[in-house]
From TrEMBL:
It comes from the Bacteria. GO terms for molecular function: oxidoreductase activity, acting on paired donors, with incorporation or reduction of molecular oxygen. Residues 43-341 form the Luciferase-like domain. This is LLM class flavin-dependent oxidoreductase. Pfam families: Bac_luciferase. The lineage of its organism: Bacteria, Pseudomonadati, Pseudomonadota, Alphaproteobacteria, Hyphomicrobiales. SUPFAM superfamilies: Bacterial luciferase-like.
Length: 391
């Protein structure tokens, strides 16, 4: 199993009473809640934490894209990836991702990723997402066009990386007489592509197509839903005539490690509850606007998220559903070994900083995890689960 340190860069100084006036930390929360001087401190602190993960032996570090919210301060993740490109030496840098349907010109991402890949000598992982529903409100984009724009933007970027230029591209949304991407990516034919998702059936089927075989990442879902979606990916691959392995699926999950289970629970409790109850707070119509998902996918995603929509979440709720990993190194090793054997993922993306978790606890947890959890899995072959139905 490979380990990628995931960071969301939340605005940790958010007034916890904001929800007395506003129903979400996304889109409609006034940016007067944001203090640029605190933002300056947080950005640099978070970059330090990502750089620290590189020195501690994580296989990769991850940044991602969100807009108009206090949940994650990376509307342009390439800025963070660029800062990290010269300050890290060993780890992969995964941009998870760029929200392709929001782009007016996908070639800007083709160029940006090619630059990052070249600067790092081939350490880039290219993440492509549709973006969650809130992004469509923030950007004024039509969610009903999400899949089509995503597919077309993806095709344009991949062609820009792999076909000799210049060539013409004529699509429904994008039209170019001259596609001629300079620079070309360092990795040939192109950087590995990962597809994070909440569990859209169409996205899973698209990622598992034999023309792509992209690594699929499940984000913020209880472990039961994780198992179902990863089984769906493997079933889809089987139907297409190829066998998906652990390297094709990954799990992104908030994680906290401390000396004992009791210490871990006590230290993580206020910060993980702030994360789920304050920063992730949004009405259903903002998360899943009409047209964003097919009916089948909507039913599946809503079922998976139902356990998170039943009011205030406590740390015990979150640990019981295994949507938050928390405990001593021994406990985390046991849980991860069990889940890996049952579900078969080959990548774990622990979010080691979440909510208001302060710097010193983030560093302590990261160090313990890197020294006492990751080495246990080095050299162990990832297991393939027994086949089970996804529905």
């Amino acid at each position: 199993m490979k380990f990628f340190f995931f960071h969301l860069m939340p605005y940790a100084a958010l007034d916890p009473d904001y929800d007395k006036k506003y129903n979400s930390a996304w889109v409609t929360l006034p940016n007067s809640y944001y203090d640029p001087k605190i933002g300056h401190q947080l950005y640099n602190r978070y970059l330090d934490e990502l750089e620290y993960a590189d020195t501690m032996g994580f296989d990769g570090i991850c940044v991602n894209e969100h807009h108009s919210n206090a949940y994650g301060m990376m509307p342009i993740p390439g800025v963070m990836a660029g800062a990290l490109a010269r300050r890290t030496k060993n780890c992969k840098i995964a941009v998870l991702g760029r929200a392709l349907p929001l782009l007016n010109n996908p070639l800007t991402v083709a160029e940006e990723f090619a630059m990052l890949d070249t600067i790092t000598g081939g350490r880039l992982v290219a993440g492509f997402v549709r973006g969650i529903g809130a992004e469509y409100h923030a950007w004024g984009a039509n969610p009903a066009e999400s899949h089509d724009r995503f597919h077309e933007a993806h095709d344009l970027i991949i062609q820009g990386w792999t076909k000799p230029g210049p060539f013409a591209f004529e699509g429904k949304y994008y039209h170019f007489n001259y596609v001629n991407v300079w620079p070309r990516p360092y990795q040939q034919p192109h950087p590995p592509v990962w597809i994070p998702s909440q569990g859209s059936r169409e996205t899973i089927e698209w990622a598992a197509h034999p023309d792509r075989k992209y690594t699929y990442l499940q984000t913020f879902s209880p472990v039961q839903a994780l198992a179902r979606y990863m089984a769906m990916y493997r079933e889809t691959a089987d139907r297409y005539g190829w066998q998906a392995g652990p390297e094709n699926v990954g799990w992104a999950i908030p994680t906290y490690c401390a000396e004992t289970d009791e210490i871990a629970r006590r230290e993580a409790k206020p910060h993980i509850e702030f994360f789920f109850n304050k920063l992730l707070r949004m009405p259903q119509e903002m998360l899943l606007p009409p047209g964003y998902l097919s009916l089948a996918s909507m039913q599946g995603v809503m079922a998976a998220k139902r356990t998170l929509s039943g009011g205030v979440q406590t740390i015990d709720d979150l640990m019981e559903k295994a949507i938050f990993l928390c405990g001593s190194p021994t406990t985390l090793r046991e849980k991860l070994e069990k889940y890996q054997a049952e579900i078969g993922f080959g990548y774990l993306l622990p979010t080691m900083q979440f909510g208001t978790l302060p710097h010193e606890l983030t560093i302590k947890s990261t160090e313990l995890f890197a020294k006492d959890v990751i080495p246990y899995f080095r050299g162990k072959a990832d297991r393939q689960p027994a086949k089970q139905a996804s529905a």
